[in-house]
Amino acid sequence: MAFQAALSLPSAISILKEGKSNISLKETGLFGVSVSDLKAEIKSPLLRSQEVGKRKPQVGTIRAQTATTAPAIKQDAPEAKKTLRKGNVIITGASSGLGLATAKALAETGQWNIIMACRNFLKAERAAKSVGIAKENYTVMHLDLASLDSVRQFVDNLRRQETPVDVLVCNAAVYQPTAKEPSFTAEGFELSVGTNHLGHFLLSRLLLDDLKQSDYPFKRLIIVGSITGNTNTLAGNVPPKANLGDLRGLVGGLNGLNSSSMIDGGDFDGAKAYKDSKVCNMLTMQEFHKRYHEESGITFASLYPGCIATTALFREHIPLFRLLFPPFQKYITKGYVSEEDAGKRLAQVVSDPSLTKSGVYWSWNKDSASFENQLSKEASDAEKARKLWEISEKLVGLE
Ligand SMILES: NC(=O)c1ccc[n+]([C@@H]2O[C@H](COP(=O)([O-])OP(=O)(O)OC[C@H]3O[C@@H](n4cnc5c(N)ncnc54)[C@H](OP(=O)(O)O)[C@@H]3O)[C@@H](O)[C@H]2O)c1
């Protein structure tokens, strides 16, 4: 796991592995960078016309449960032969990092039409080109998750194109570990929770009917989680810890005026807001599973892709952190995962015929084999998931 080798740091730490840790921890530092920093993830319109349903089916799939470092591409899988058309997968935040690497991995199978749902249209186009995604395998559509109007507009545009939705990947995120003051979405929600949770919550709720109508052999809704939101892990125990409390700040609208900008009602903390948003992501996945899996057959899943220390997620961190974080993860904790390998992991969760179990939080062991991981007490609290769902519905105007 990403932070195991923090054992080598001068902290009173004991850990077994993610989901099974026995932890006592005190704050310390590394080369002037606090350990909490090092571990906080140590941690328009359619561009071109759709050709959905018109292409010759191609076979090949990404394998699950592989013990190799990167899932292999398997040709002529029997499951793929059932497919009459390419699958359509929407990936939010596909303009960089994990989302882009996942788009690339899926595009390379030739089986997927990737809808890159991005806030910066030009950046996404350039990113797709820069990693060599063939034109016929992707479409860029504008989506700003920090605006609920934009989310609704995105869904309208998609429906106008009559694009079937087979898989939705809620991947985009913002992380503001050094922010002193909160910033806000168009509707006035604190930015991290507003984008990472509320924007995705509205998007996935609106697209649920589209997913239900999909005639693809499988349909999936995946919400990217994180180790840092799980307090049953070493990383999740580094302050500030995720804690949604009694959700009083969320009930108040996270606007920082007549309510706190933090879900638990406390003072603003950018790193905590990100971790809280990840707890929301993992709770939302489970509530979806509980409410809709049986009736719809949709697989709902979350995952921790590993510590992808090089992504732009850390763009707002101090330069020294950004310099030291990747080598720290590579050579000290050994929890580092390249963007390419992390993309293959998420691509597995999208397309692997054997990862059909719903309600699962996937992780990968040191041999890069996937396994069902345990969520923390809070991230698997069914009552909290229900409350979060109901409050979120009100905030995004679904009630
Ligand atoms: N990196 C890690 O170690 C790590 C570990 C665990 C989980 N994760 C999760 O992995 C996911 C991807 O993160 P990453 O590491 O790949 O970071 P990243 O490279 O910064 O990617 C984040 C993506 O989200 C997009 N985004 C941000 N705000 C948006 C908005 N308002 N509307 C639409 N898109 C928006 C960004 O768009 P722009 O390109 O326009 O900025 C970017 O494409 C996140 O859910 C993160 O929590 C990452």
TrEMBL record:
UniProt keyword Chloroplast present: yes
EC number: 1.3.1.33
Family matches, as Pfam families: adh_short
InterPro entries: NAD(P)-bd_dom_sf, Prochl_reduct, SDR_fam
Domain of life where this protein originates: Eukaryota
GO biological process assignments: chlorophyll biosynthetic process; photosynthesis
Major subcellular site: plastid
UniProt pathway: Porphyrin-containing compound metabolism; chlorophyll biosynthesis
SUPFAM superfamilies tied to this protein: NAD(P)-binding Rossmann-fold domains (SSF51735)
Enzyme class: oxidoreductase
Keywords carried by this UniProt record: Chlorophyll biosynthesis, Chloroplast, NADP, Oxidoreductase, Photosynthesis, Plastid, Transit peptide
Gene3D superfamilies tied to this protein: NAD(P)-binding Rossmann-like Domain
Catalytic activity: chlorophyllide a + NADP(+) = protochlorophyllide a + NADPH + H(+)
GO cellular component terms given for this protein: chloroplast
Subcellular compartments: Plastid, Chloroplast
Record-linked NCBIfam families: LPOR
Entry similarity comment: Belongs to the short-chain dehydrogenases/reductases (SDR) family. POR subfamily.
Purpose of the protein: Phototransformation of protochlorophyllide (Pchlide) to chlorophyllide (Chlide).
UniProt cross-references to PANTHER family, sorted A to Z: PROTOCHLOROPHYLLIDE REDUCTASE A, CHLOROPLASTIC, PROTOCHLOROPHYLLIDE REDUCTASE C, CHLOROPLASTIC
Name assigned to this protein: NADPH-protochlorophyllide oxidoreductase
